[in-house]
Amino acid sequence: MGHSKKYIPLYIGIAVAVGVFIGSKLNFQDNNEKIFATNSKKDKLNRLIDYIDYEYVDNVNTDSIVDVTVNGILENLDPHSVYIPVSAYEDNADDMRGNFVGIGVSFYVYKDSIAVIRAIEGGSAEKVGIKGGDRILYANNRKLFGESIDRDSISKFLKGEINSKVDLKVYRKGEKKLLDFKLKRRRIPIISVDASYMLNEKTGYIKINRFSESTYAEFKNALDDLQDEGMKTLVLDLRDNPGGYISSAERVLDEFLEDDKLMLITKNKVGDEDKSYATRKGDFEKGKLYVLINENSASASEIVAGALQDNDKGIIIGRRSFGKGLVQREMALGDGSAVRLTIARYYTPTGRSIQRPYGEGNGNYYSDYENRYRNGELIHADSMKVADSLKYVTPKGKVVYGGGGIIPDVFIPKDTSIENETLNYVSRNGFMSYFIFEYLENNRFQFNKLSYEDFKKNYKVSDKLAEDFVVYSRLQEAQIDLSNYQEELKMALKANIAQQLYGPNAYEFILNADDAMLKKVLELEKKASEK
């Protein structure tokens, strides 16, 4: 962030949609010989690299030149064909798989040591009793503290082969000696369902932050639990969800759509179509559904929203989605790196293209959020530009529009006040989280015996804590002033405390208490019940 409010970017969050990978089901018809046949264009690139390697006056790392060349080529194709260097490949793979092998802690490198924020539910660390505030000092007698410590090297020691053993020595405030823990590295889920709970006696809420390999299983467990609690209406929150695996999105969709309903059309460069249909599965086909989207909902999120809208299932609430409907396939380059190359386009069941135009270059493409802001689209529904030539009609006669992104059935304006944008940013980007960690370092004893239910109902953020955060913000590089946003600030602080003590579900529950889209859902539900 900049040094004053005026530099806070209004496009925060849009960048999460860059390079999102959607798994494709299309198959290449070309064999390897045809794809990789020698020709003059490839010879030219190879020869240039050789000239630089052997003839150029200075020593040059040609690996870096190749990386730059590959990136340059892909940037001239479309905004979502991307290169994944060797150094980033494993983290990308973990994120899409929805798990990694490790001990299961979230942590900060804090004052030259590993400070545990919280042990991840179901992980090895939680099972052996590691707690928030603990300092992991040694792993298999390897020192993990000191001035030279960095997050990447720590991860190498805490991650490892599945079922491999690790002995930890841990400092815990109040204990005279270091604590010894013996545990095995296990598969640790990277949670994609942030929250699931009942909004009232009949209405449930599930928030999905992306579509990874594990998303459907997480979603189905949450759906089953809420149905057991009596849920008849579901709010599916896909705001800020950048997408992911299409197979996971389709399985979630299948829970809502009746047998043989068209879900998705995929077209490749020669016009071949691949169509996906709902199966006999589906435990919420008769249930009432609302879907929340915003300008950061992209890719697989838009496929879900578009398929439901085109099948007259549920009500889409929010703002026009990002507009990313290009299909990428990951292809290995032989040295541990890979490309995610666009090979097709996605269309909703009525034939709408999800992808918005990108012919004016990547810079304009990713500054679209600023254009939407200036045009008033984020604040006024009638500011959205739609073309009659891109009008489509659903089976029940509802008019929907193509041209990129999904336009909601019910529009909810964005609170674009600089204070709200700033508060939302500092609450979700880690800035407030670090402040809360430091607060808990000195006050954790106050919460040791406080249950989540007691915390929700009875804990109140003090004026002093809010004022301390205002001072902390002013002293940091961001130089934020939220002194006139007291109640909203207290809610954000309480949510961040809840996240570190009780997990992401608690965080979302508290922040959602004043959420405009959820208030609209409950208003619509109340009107429906009065008819």
From TrEMBL:
A GO term from the CC aspect: outer membrane-bounded periplasmic space
GO biological process, one term: signal transduction
Keywords: Hydrolase, Membrane, Protease, Serine protease, Transmembrane, Transmembrane helix
Pfam families: PDZ_2 (PF13180), Peptidase_S41 (PF03572)
Chain ranges of the PDZ domain: 97-159
Sample GO molecular function, one term: endopeptidase activity
Chain ranges passing through the membrane: 7-26
UniProt record similarity statement: Belongs to the peptidase S41A family.
PANTHER family, per database record: CARBOXY-TERMINAL PROCESSING PROTEASE CTPA (PTHR32060:SF30), TAIL-SPECIFIC PROTEASE (PTHR32060)
Name of this protein: S41 family peptidase
Organismal lineage: Bacteria, Pseudomonadati, Bacteroidota, Flavobacteriia, Flavobacteriales
